[in-house]
Amino acid sequence: MAFKFNVSGRISRPVGEVFEAVADPAKLSGYFTTGGAKGRLETGATVTWEFADFPGAFPVEVAEVVENERIVLHWDAEDGAKTKVTMTFTALEGGRTLVNITEEGFTDTPEGQQSAFGNCMGWAQMICALRAWVEHGINLREGFYV
Predict the structure, then answer these.
(1) Which domain holds residue 16?
(2) What is the mean pLDDT of residues 83-96?
(3) Is the pLDDT confidence value at 144 over 80?
(4) Which of 60, 92, 107, 139 has the largest count of CB atoms under 10 Å?
(5) Structural domain total, the chain
(6) In this structure, is residue 60 part of a structural domain?
(7) The CATH number of the domain where 98 resides is what?
(8) Number of helices and strands (H, E) in the chain?
(9) Does pTM top 0.90 for this prediction?
(10) Quick check: 1 pLDDT over 70?
């Protein structure tokens, strides 16, 4: 069985604002890619994400973008697998947004399991950081890992 996980959270901002906070590299760099993001998330693009606390640029292949609805990415996991990340954005009552992130394609090995657990933690933290950023302008990631 290949490993797969799903995390989600609700953010008290309209779906367009939340989607842009992920798709726009300048906004994403404010709370998640603390070493900088290069390139807007658009279908067919390959962008790079860097994290100050995990040095090195990560290439991210953008498979699909449906504005204000879905972003599908592919990138290399620590276990050597190329995984698929699917983010969905659902408008809720009261101007809130449900963000759901699924990652799948990890190898069925102890390394794949460890990689999946690590990425699951990372995406859950990303949603928390996204919420703090768009609702309050707070960068939760700064100093979190080092």
Answers:
(1) 3-136
(2) 98
(3) no
(4) 60
(5) 1
(6) yes
(7) 3.30.530.20
(8) 3, 7
(9) yes
(10) no
